[in-house]
Amino acid sequence: MAARKTYPSRIIAIEDAGDLHKVLRIVTTGDGSFALVPIHPAPVGMIAKVGPPQVLTAPGGGWTEMLQTHLVGTRVKLIYHPSGFVQFSKASTKKVRSGEGPPEKFLVPEGMGIHTQPLTDPIATGPSVGSAFDNVHECPVVDGSEPVAVMAFREEDIADWYHHAPSGLPDTPIGPATHHQYHVEIFVFPPDVRREAVFVHGRWILVRDYSPLRPDLDQTVFRVCDLPTEIASLGIVVKRFHARTNRERPPTGYTLSGPRDLGSGYWLGGQWPAPDDERELPWLDAEPAVERTLARVG
């Protein structure tokens, strides 16, 4: 199969304490596929298919079931194809198991993938994919040497999910916050929504409801990222959460989240670095090294 032609990507940068940190790269291809490639030094991650909460303790909370949990030591991306096939695949020269089986296997994912809504009928209830960073200072700073355009989210562009206290961190529902966590959410919008965008201060933006499931929220400003096709466009939001951790270590790493599978309801998820107690999991790498370490950043 011939390689897909890639188009100029964009770097998502987040301002924190006066510096712009490069956290994500959005890569697009001519058929409308787009991928998230985190810019973070964590070497080994854990990815899985995650089920809905089994025991609800709060809206959206509770224990969850995880399927096909694997370690991955190769740099990966989360890619969304126009057909609705979403998977983790390689983002470097080293390979991981990915792709789909032949038709006689009913297009079963060979690696870690699911089938969700196509880009021609995008998810309308919230973000399609996203990533969260516990410490953006682990990501490199914008220095002017970037080979592609930087989409900068400065202080005034960031939406606070809870009230932001400039003089310190506020309380959370489970106690005093210990750090800021930044979420990058990627929405997929059809052409009729893209036509509502306006050009302000050198950028295309959309101002609309966050989700039909959250009428309690104020309207949200989305930054528009066009794909090299007219079937859909991306709307990007950066949110700041006030998080709390009970771990002795300072917060570190990032997560990648995909949409739910249309059949099973499970969604793709991954975290970097992998937990220290998951060393015995199988590897998704096509050619895992003889020895690997789950060393954390720093």
Question: Would you give an account of this structure?
Answer:
The chain is mainly β. 1% of the residues lie in helices and 41% in strands. The chain contains 1 helix and 20 strands. A hairpin with a 2-residue loop joins strand 12 and strand 13. The N and C termini lie far apart (40 Å).
Q: What tags apply to this protein structure?
A:
globular, 20 strands, 11-stranded mixed beta sheet, 298 residues, mainly beta, single chain, 7-stranded mixed beta sheet
The rounded distance between the terminal residues' Cα atoms is 40 Å
The proportion of residues in beta strands is 35-45%
Low-pLDDT ranges: 58-62, 102-106, 163-168, 288-298
The helix-and-strand class reads: mainly beta
In DSSP terms (H or I, runs of 4 or more residues), the helix count works out at 1
Radius of gyration: 19 Å
Oligomer classification:
single chain
- What is the general shape? globular
Number of strands: 20
Mean pLDDT: 80
Helicity, as a percent range? under 10%
Total number of distinct structural domains: 1
Largest sheet: 11 strands, mixed
Order of secondary-structure elements: EEEEEEEEEEEEEEHEEEEEE
Offer a concise description of the structure:
The chain contains one helix and 20 strands.
What is the secondary structure topology, with strand pairs?
Elements: E1 6-16, E2 19-29, E3 34-38, E4 45-50, E5 66-72, E6 76-80, E7 85-90, E8 113-115, E9 129-133, E10 149-153, E11 159-160, E12 171-172, E13 175-176, E14 179-189, H1 191-194, E15 198-200, E16 203-208, E17 220-226, E18 233-243, E19 254-260, E20 267-272
Parallel strand pairs: 1-10, 11-18
Antiparallel strand pairs: 1-2, 2-3, 3-6, 4-5, 4-20, 6-7, 7-8, 9-14, 9-19, 12-13, 14-18, 15-16, 16-17, 17-18, 19-20
